[in-house]
What we know:
homodimer, mainly alpha, DNA-binding
Amino acid sequence: MASVTERKKQLLSVCARLFREKGFSATSMRDIAQEVGIEPASLYSHVSGKDELLQLICFGMAEKFSLAIQEVNDIYFNAEEKLKMAVENHVKLLVSNLDEAYVFLREWRSLEQPGKSEFIRLRDEYEQGIREIIQTGIDEGKFNETDKHFAALTLLSSLNWIPEWYQTGGTWSAEKVAEKLYQFVLTGLKKKDPIV
Amino acid sequence: MASVTERKKQLLSVCARLFREKGFSATSMRDIAQEVGIEPASLYSHVSGKDELLQLICFGMAEKFSLAIQEVNDIYFNAEEKLKMAVENHVKLLVSNLDEAYVFLREWRSLEQPGKSEFIRLRDEYEQGIREIIQTGIDEGKFNETDKHFAALTLLSSLNWIPEWYQTGGTWSAEKVAEKLYQFVLTGLKKKDPIV
DNA sequence: CCTACCGATCGGTAGG
DNA sequence: CCTACCGATCGGTAGG
Protein backbone atom coordinates (compact mmCIF):
# COMPACT_ATOMS: atom_id res chain seq x y z
CA MET A 1 0.00 0.00 0.00
CA ALA A 2 2.70 2.45 1.01
CA SER A 3 4.81 1.48 -1.99
CA VAL A 4 1.87 2.02 -4.33
CA THR A 5 1.44 5.50 -2.93
CA GLU A 6 5.14 6.20 -3.28
CA ARG A 7 5.10 5.04 -6.86
CA LYS A 8 2.16 7.26 -7.64
CA LYS A 9 3.83 10.26 -6.04
CA GLN A 10 6.94 9.61 -8.09
CA LEU A 11 4.77 9.19 -11.17
CA LEU A 12 3.04 12.53 -10.64
CA SER A 13 6.30 14.29 -9.97
CA VAL A 14 7.83 12.94 -13.17
CA CYS A 15 4.71 13.88 -15.11
CA ALA A 16 4.69 17.43 -13.78
CA ARG A 17 8.28 17.89 -14.89
CA LEU A 18 7.70 16.41 -18.33
CA PHE A 19 4.40 18.22 -18.90
CA ARG A 20 6.18 21.43 -18.05
CA GLU A 21 9.23 20.80 -20.20
CA LYS A 22 7.52 19.42 -23.28
CA GLY A 23 3.88 20.28 -22.78
CA PHE A 24 1.11 17.77 -22.09
CA SER A 25 0.40 16.87 -25.71
CA ALA A 26 4.02 16.40 -26.66
CA THR A 27 4.66 14.10 -23.70
CA SER A 28 3.97 10.45 -24.49
CA MET A 29 3.12 7.70 -22.07
CA ARG A 30 6.36 6.10 -23.26
CA ASP A 31 8.32 9.22 -22.21
CA ILE A 32 6.76 9.00 -18.76
CA ALA A 33 7.34 5.26 -18.41
CA GLN A 34 10.99 5.61 -19.35
CA GLU A 35 11.59 8.32 -16.74
CA VAL A 36 9.80 6.30 -14.09
CA GLY A 37 11.67 3.17 -15.10
CA ILE A 38 8.81 0.84 -15.95
CA GLU A 39 7.16 -0.42 -19.13
CA PRO A 40 4.58 1.88 -20.77
CA ALA A 41 1.76 -0.62 -20.28
CA SER A 42 2.47 -0.74 -16.55
CA LEU A 43 1.40 2.88 -16.15
CA TYR A 44 -2.18 1.75 -16.59
CA SER A 45 -2.13 -0.18 -13.35
CA HIS A 46 -1.70 3.15 -11.55
CA VAL A 47 -3.89 5.47 -13.59
CA SER A 48 -6.66 5.07 -16.11
CA GLY A 49 -4.88 7.09 -18.77
CA LYS A 50 -2.94 10.18 -19.69
CA ASP A 51 -5.79 12.52 -18.84
CA GLU A 52 -5.96 11.29 -15.26
CA LEU A 53 -2.33 12.26 -14.75
CA LEU A 54 -3.08 15.81 -15.87
CA GLN A 55 -6.20 15.93 -13.72
CA LEU A 56 -4.36 14.80 -10.60
CA ILE A 57 -1.77 17.53 -11.02
CA CYS A 58 -4.21 20.33 -11.88
CA PHE A 59 -6.77 19.54 -9.20
CA GLY A 60 -4.06 18.90 -6.63
CA MET A 61 -2.80 22.44 -7.11
CA ALA A 62 -6.30 23.88 -7.30
CA GLU A 63 -7.04 22.44 -3.89
CA LYS A 64 -3.88 23.93 -2.41
CA PHE A 65 -4.81 27.37 -3.70
CA SER A 66 -8.33 26.96 -2.42
CA LEU A 67 -7.10 26.10 1.07
CA ALA A 68 -4.64 29.00 1.01
CA ILE A 69 -7.26 31.66 0.32
CA GLN A 70 -9.63 30.15 2.89
CA GLU A 71 -6.89 30.33 5.50
CA VAL A 72 -6.30 34.01 4.75
CA ASN A 73 -9.97 34.83 5.05
CA ASP A 74 -10.28 32.92 8.30
CA ILE A 75 -7.32 34.44 10.10
CA TYR A 76 -6.80 38.01 9.03
CA PHE A 77 -9.15 40.94 9.12
CA ASN A 78 -7.94 44.10 7.48
CA ALA A 79 -7.41 44.19 3.75
CA GLU A 80 -3.72 45.05 3.71
CA GLU A 81 -2.87 42.13 5.97
CA LYS A 82 -5.10 39.84 3.94
CA LEU A 83 -3.60 40.88 0.67
CA LYS A 84 -0.09 40.51 2.00
CA MET A 85 -0.79 37.01 3.24
CA ALA A 86 -2.63 36.03 0.08
CA VAL A 87 0.32 37.15 -2.03
CA GLU A 88 2.75 35.35 0.24
CA ASN A 89 0.76 32.11 0.18
CA HIS A 90 0.35 32.31 -3.58
CA VAL A 91 4.04 32.87 -4.20
CA LYS A 92 5.01 30.10 -1.80
CA LEU A 93 2.70 27.63 -3.53
CA LEU A 94 4.16 28.51 -6.92
CA VAL A 95 7.76 28.45 -5.83
CA SER A 96 7.58 25.23 -3.84
CA ASN A 97 5.75 23.36 -6.62
CA LEU A 98 7.27 24.91 -9.72
CA ASP A 99 6.52 22.10 -12.15
CA GLU A 100 3.03 21.44 -10.86
CA ALA A 101 2.31 25.16 -10.75
CA TYR A 102 3.39 25.56 -14.35
CA VAL A 103 1.09 22.74 -15.42
CA PHE A 104 -1.70 24.17 -13.28
CA LEU A 105 -1.30 27.57 -14.94
CA ARG A 106 -0.58 26.63 -18.53
CA GLU A 107 -1.55 23.06 -19.34
CA TRP A 108 -5.03 22.80 -17.83
CA ARG A 109 -6.41 23.62 -21.28
CA SER A 110 -5.70 20.03 -22.26
CA LEU A 111 -8.02 18.68 -19.55
CA GLU A 112 -10.92 16.68 -20.88
CA GLN A 113 -14.50 17.54 -20.05
CA PRO A 114 -16.18 17.58 -17.61
CA GLY A 115 -13.00 18.03 -15.59
CA LYS A 116 -12.08 21.13 -17.52
CA SER A 117 -15.26 23.01 -16.60
CA GLU A 118 -14.92 22.03 -12.97
CA PHE A 119 -11.32 23.22 -12.99
CA ILE A 120 -12.32 26.59 -14.43
CA ARG A 121 -14.96 26.89 -11.74
CA LEU A 122 -12.39 26.34 -8.99
CA ARG A 123 -10.02 28.84 -10.54
CA ASP A 124 -12.78 31.45 -10.78
CA GLU A 125 -13.62 30.84 -7.15
CA TYR A 126 -10.05 31.60 -6.14
CA GLU A 127 -10.00 34.72 -8.29
CA GLN A 128 -13.24 35.79 -6.64
CA GLY A 129 -11.52 35.44 -3.26
CA ILE A 130 -8.77 37.81 -4.36
CA ARG A 131 -11.33 40.27 -5.68
CA GLU A 132 -13.10 40.30 -2.34
CA ILE A 133 -9.91 41.19 -0.54
CA ILE A 134 -9.41 44.10 -2.90
CA GLN A 135 -13.01 45.20 -2.42
CA THR A 136 -12.50 45.11 1.35
CA GLY A 137 -9.49 47.38 0.93
CA ILE A 138 -11.52 49.83 -1.12
CA ASP A 139 -14.30 49.80 1.46
CA GLU A 140 -11.76 50.44 4.20
CA GLY A 141 -10.49 53.42 2.23
CA LYS A 142 -7.05 51.89 2.01
CA PHE A 143 -6.98 50.97 -1.65
CA ASN A 144 -7.67 53.20 -4.60
CA GLU A 145 -11.11 53.03 -6.10
CA THR A 146 -10.39 50.76 -9.05
CA ASP A 147 -12.12 48.12 -11.07
CA LYS A 148 -11.63 45.15 -8.77
CA HIS A 149 -11.77 42.65 -11.64
CA PHE A 150 -9.00 44.50 -13.36
CA ALA A 151 -6.93 44.86 -10.21
CA ALA A 152 -7.25 41.17 -9.33
CA LEU A 153 -6.31 40.19 -12.85
CA THR A 154 -3.24 42.41 -12.86
CA LEU A 155 -2.16 41.20 -9.46
CA LEU A 156 -2.51 37.55 -10.43
CA SER A 157 -0.77 38.20 -13.73
CA SER A 158 2.32 39.45 -11.94
CA LEU A 159 2.30 36.46 -9.64
CA ASN A 160 1.54 33.84 -12.24
CA TRP A 161 4.50 34.71 -14.40
CA ILE A 162 6.81 33.58 -11.61
CA PRO A 163 7.14 29.96 -12.82
CA GLU A 164 8.38 31.41 -16.10
CA TRP A 165 11.48 32.99 -14.58
CA TYR A 166 11.98 31.74 -11.02
CA GLN A 167 15.06 29.60 -10.54
CA THR A 168 15.29 27.22 -7.62
CA GLY A 169 18.48 27.95 -5.77
CA GLY A 170 18.68 31.43 -7.27
CA THR A 171 19.31 34.57 -5.28
CA TRP A 172 15.73 35.11 -4.13
CA SER A 173 13.75 33.18 -1.58
CA ALA A 174 10.01 32.77 -1.92
CA GLU A 175 9.54 35.24 0.93
CA LYS A 176 11.74 37.82 -0.77
CA VAL A 177 9.86 37.48 -4.04
CA ALA A 178 6.53 37.73 -2.25
CA GLU A 179 7.65 40.85 -0.36
CA LYS A 180 8.92 42.57 -3.51
CA LEU A 181 5.82 41.72 -5.51
CA TYR A 182 3.54 42.86 -2.72
CA GLN A 183 5.35 46.20 -2.48
CA PHE A 184 5.29 46.63 -6.23
CA VAL A 185 1.60 45.93 -6.53
CA LEU A 186 0.84 48.18 -3.59
CA THR A 187 2.90 51.25 -4.40
CA GLY A 188 3.96 50.97 -8.03
CA LEU A 189 7.01 52.21 -9.84
CA LYS A 190 6.60 55.93 -9.42
CA LYS A 191 8.47 57.89 -6.83
CA LYS A 192 6.20 60.07 -4.77
CA ASP A 193 6.58 63.70 -5.72
CA PRO A 194 8.21 65.63 -2.91
CA ILE A 195 5.98 68.38 -1.59
CA VAL A 196 7.51 71.47 -3.11
CA MET B 1 2.02 35.66 -56.86
CA ALA B 2 -0.58 37.69 -55.08
CA SER B 3 -2.77 34.64 -54.58
CA VAL B 4 0.14 32.64 -53.15
CA THR B 5 0.76 35.39 -50.63
CA GLU B 6 -2.90 35.53 -49.74
CA ARG B 7 -2.97 31.78 -49.21
CA LYS B 8 0.04 31.97 -46.96
CA LYS B 9 -1.47 34.78 -44.92
CA GLN B 10 -4.64 32.75 -44.53
CA LEU B 11 -2.57 29.72 -43.63
CA LEU B 12 -0.69 31.59 -40.90
CA SER B 13 -3.87 33.10 -39.54
CA VAL B 14 -5.52 29.68 -39.33
CA CYS B 15 -2.40 28.23 -37.70
CA ALA B 16 -2.22 30.97 -35.09
CA ARG B 17 -5.81 30.30 -34.11
CA LEU B 18 -5.38 26.53 -33.96
CA PHE B 19 -2.03 26.69 -32.16
CA ARG B 20 -3.67 28.93 -29.61
CA GLU B 21 -6.80 26.82 -29.16
CA LYS B 22 -5.20 23.38 -29.10
CA GLY B 23 -1.53 24.08 -28.62
CA PHE B 24 1.16 23.50 -31.24
CA SER B 25 1.75 19.82 -30.50
CA ALA B 26 -1.91 18.90 -30.42
CA THR B 27 -2.55 20.58 -33.76
CA SER B 28 -2.04 18.26 -36.72
CA MET B 29 -1.23 19.22 -40.28
CA ARG B 30 -4.56 17.56 -41.11
CA ASP B 31 -6.37 19.95 -38.73
CA ILE B 32 -4.74 22.89 -40.45
CA ALA B 33 -5.44 21.60 -43.97
CA GLN B 34 -9.09 21.05 -43.15
CA GLU B 35 -9.54 24.59 -41.84
CA VAL B 36 -7.77 26.05 -44.86
CA GLY B 37 -9.78 23.84 -47.18
CA ILE B 38 -7.02 21.94 -48.99
CA GLU B 39 -5.51 18.47 -48.77
CA PRO B 40 -2.89 17.91 -46.03
CA ALA B 41 -0.14 17.15 -48.55
CA SER B 42 -0.76 20.48 -50.27
CA LEU B 43 0.46 22.38 -47.23
CA TYR B 44 3.97 21.35 -48.13
CA SER B 45 3.92 23.44 -51.29
CA HIS B 46 3.67 26.51 -49.05
CA VAL B 47 5.89 25.61 -46.14
CA SER B 48 8.60 23.06 -45.46
CA GLY B 49 6.81 21.61 -42.45
CA LYS B 50 4.97 22.22 -39.23
CA ASP B 51 7.94 23.88 -37.55
CA GLU B 52 8.15 26.57 -40.22
CA LEU B 53 4.56 27.56 -39.48
CA LEU B 54 5.42 28.09 -35.82
CA GLN B 55 8.60 29.96 -36.73
CA LEU B 56 6.79 32.34 -39.07
CA ILE B 57 4.29 33.25 -36.35
CA CYS B 58 6.81 33.60 -33.52
CA PHE B 59 9.40 35.56 -35.47
CA GLY B 60 6.73 37.70 -37.09
CA MET B 61 5.59 38.86 -33.66
CA ALA B 62 9.15 39.18 -32.38
CA GLU B 63 9.90 41.59 -35.18
CA LYS B 64 6.85 43.70 -34.41
CA PHE B 65 7.88 44.01 -30.79
CA SER B 66 11.41 44.85 -31.79
CA LEU B 67 10.24 47.66 -34.06
CA ALA B 68 7.89 48.96 -31.37
CA ILE B 69 10.60 49.40 -28.74
CA GLN B 70 12.96 50.96 -31.27
CA GLU B 71 10.31 53.49 -32.17
CA VAL B 72 9.83 54.44 -28.53
CA ASN B 73 13.54 54.94 -28.00
CA ASP B 74 13.85 57.03 -31.16
CA ILE B 75 11.00 59.42 -30.52
CA TYR B 76 10.62 60.01 -26.81
CA PHE B 77 13.07 61.29 -24.27
CA ASN B 78 11.93 61.22 -20.68
CA ALA B 79 11.31 57.94 -18.96
CA GLU B 80 7.66 58.41 -18.08
CA GLU B 81 6.76 59.20 -21.67
CA LYS B 82 8.85 56.31 -22.91
CA LEU B 83 7.30 53.86 -20.52
CA LYS B 84 3.82 55.05 -21.34
CA MET B 85 4.41 54.60 -25.05
CA ALA B 86 6.13 51.25 -24.58
CA VAL B 87 3.16 49.95 -22.59
CA GLU B 88 0.73 51.31 -25.14
CA ASN B 89 2.60 49.77 -28.06
CA HIS B 90 2.93 46.46 -26.25
CA VAL B 91 -0.76 46.28 -25.41
CA LYS B 92 -1.78 47.27 -28.91
CA LEU B 93 0.40 44.56 -30.42
CA LEU B 94 -1.11 41.94 -28.13
CA VAL B 95 -4.69 43.03 -28.58
CA SER B 96 -4.57 43.43 -32.34
CA ASN B 97 -2.89 40.05 -32.85
CA LEU B 98 -4.43 37.98 -30.08
CA ASP B 99 -3.85 34.54 -31.56
CA GLU B 100 -0.35 35.28 -32.81
CA ALA B 101 0.51 36.96 -29.51
CA TYR B 102 -0.64 33.95 -27.58
CA VAL B 103 1.53 31.66 -29.69
CA PHE B 104 4.43 34.11 -29.40
CA LEU B 105 4.12 34.11 -25.61
CA ARG B 106 3.27 30.49 -24.88
CA GLU B 107 4.08 28.17 -27.76
CA TRP B 108 7.58 29.29 -28.73
CA ARG B 109 8.90 26.48 -26.54
CA SER B 110 8.05 24.07 -29.32
CA LEU B 111 10.39 25.84 -31.75
CA GLU B 112 13.18 23.66 -33.04
CA GLN B 113 16.79 24.63 -32.71
CA PRO B 114 18.53 26.77 -33.78
CA GLY B 115 15.43 28.92 -34.19
CA LYS B 116 14.57 28.56 -30.53
CA SER B 117 17.84 30.08 -29.32
CA GLU B 118 17.55 32.94 -31.78
CA PHE B 119 14.01 33.57 -30.61
CA ILE B 120 15.09 33.72 -26.98
CA ARG B 121 17.81 36.17 -27.96
CA LEU B 122 15.28 38.50 -29.58
CA ARG B 123 12.98 38.29 -26.60
CA ASP B 124 15.83 39.09 -24.21
CA GLU B 125 16.74 42.07 -26.37
CA TYR B 126 13.22 43.43 -26.02
CA GLU B 127 13.24 42.87 -22.29
CA GLN B 128 16.55 44.70 -22.11
CA GLY B 129 14.91 47.66 -23.87
CA ILE B 130 12.22 47.80 -21.19
CA ARG B 131 14.85 47.59 -18.46
CA GLU B 132 16.71 50.55 -19.94
CA ILE B 133 13.59 52.68 -19.86
CA ILE B 134 13.14 51.85 -16.20
CA GLN B 135 16.80 52.62 -15.51
CA THR B 136 16.37 55.99 -17.21
CA GLY B 137 13.44 56.73 -14.91
CA ILE B 138 15.52 55.85 -11.87
CA ASP B 139 18.37 58.05 -13.11
CA GLU B 140 15.92 60.90 -13.63
CA GLY B 141 14.70 60.47 -10.06
CA LYS B 142 11.19 59.76 -11.28
CA PHE B 143 11.00 56.05 -10.50
CA ASN B 144 11.70 54.35 -7.22
CA GLU B 145 15.10 52.79 -6.80
CA THR B 146 14.24 49.17 -7.54
CA ASP B 147 15.80 46.13 -9.07
CA LYS B 148 15.25 46.92 -12.73
CA HIS B 149 15.24 43.25 -13.73
CA PHE B 150 12.50 42.61 -11.26
CA ALA B 151 10.52 45.69 -12.25
CA ALA B 152 10.73 44.86 -15.97
CA LEU B 153 9.65 41.29 -15.29
CA THR B 154 6.67 42.37 -13.22
CA LEU B 155 5.63 44.95 -15.78
CA LEU B 156 5.82 42.47 -18.63
CA SER B 157 4.02 39.84 -16.56
CA SER B 158 1.03 42.13 -16.15
CA LEU B 159 0.99 42.89 -19.85
CA ASN B 160 1.58 39.37 -21.08
CA TRP B 161 -1.39 37.94 -19.27
CA ILE B 162 -3.68 40.04 -21.47
CA PRO B 163 -4.18 37.39 -24.18
CA GLU B 164 -5.44 35.12 -21.43
CA TRP B 165 -8.43 37.30 -20.62
CA TYR B 166 -8.89 39.98 -23.26
CA GLN B 167 -12.05 39.59 -25.34
CA THR B 168 -12.29 41.19 -28.75
CA GLY B 169 -15.44 43.28 -28.81
CA GLY B 170 -15.52 43.47 -25.02
CA THR B 171 -15.97 46.65 -23.04
CA TRP B 172 -12.35 47.79 -23.13
CA SER B 173 -10.38 49.16 -26.04
CA ALA B 174 -6.66 48.51 -26.35
CA GLU B 175 -6.04 52.15 -25.37
CA LYS B 176 -8.18 51.83 -22.25
CA VAL B 177 -6.39 48.65 -21.17
CA ALA B 178 -3.01 50.25 -21.81
CA GLU B 179 -3.97 53.34 -19.82
CA LYS B 180 -5.24 51.32 -16.86
CA LEU B 181 -2.23 49.03 -16.81
CA TYR B 182 0.16 51.94 -17.06
CA GLN B 183 -1.51 53.68 -14.14
CA PHE B 184 -1.53 50.51 -12.10
CA VAL B 185 2.14 49.79 -12.70
CA LEU B 186 3.05 53.38 -11.99
CA THR B 187 1.09 54.06 -8.81
CA GLY B 188 -0.07 50.71 -7.45
CA LEU B 189 -3.10 49.74 -5.49
CA LYS B 190 -2.56 51.71 -2.32
CA LYS B 191 -4.31 54.97 -1.65
CA LYS B 192 -1.92 57.69 -0.64
CA ASP B 193 -2.17 58.40 3.07
CA PRO B 194 -3.67 61.81 3.61
CA ILE B 195 -1.31 64.12 5.47
CA VAL B 196 -2.73 64.10 8.96
C1' DC C 1 4.37 -4.95 -13.26
C1' DC C 2 5.57 -7.50 -17.90
C1' DT C 3 5.20 -9.37 -22.93
C1' DA C 4 2.85 -8.93 -26.93
C1' DC C 5 0.06 -6.50 -29.63
C1' DC C 6 -3.81 -3.34 -31.93
C1' DG C 7 -6.02 0.24 -34.67
C1' DA C 8 -5.58 5.11 -35.28
C1' DT C 9 -3.11 8.92 -36.37
C1' DC C 10 1.06 11.38 -37.04
C1' DG C 11 4.49 14.34 -40.22
C1' DG C 12 6.00 13.95 -44.46
C1' DT C 13 7.21 12.18 -49.57
C1' DA C 14 6.67 10.57 -54.60
C1' DG C 15 4.92 11.70 -58.62
C1' DG C 16 2.04 14.12 -61.22
C1' DC D 1 -2.77 21.67 -55.47
C1' DC D 2 -4.15 16.41 -55.68
C1' DT D 3 -3.97 11.04 -55.18
C1' DA D 4 -1.72 7.54 -53.08
C1' DC D 5 1.09 6.08 -49.77
C1' DC D 6 5.04 5.26 -46.01
C1' DG D 7 7.32 4.26 -41.65
C1' DA D 8 7.03 5.86 -36.99
C1' DT D 9 4.68 6.67 -33.05
C1' DC D 10 0.62 7.28 -30.46
C1' DG D 11 -2.77 5.85 -26.32
C1' DG D 12 -4.41 1.90 -24.78
C1' DT D 13 -5.81 -3.42 -24.11
C1' DA D 14 -5.43 -8.67 -23.36
C1' DG D 15 -3.73 -11.86 -20.64
C1' DG D 16 -0.82 -13.25 -17.41
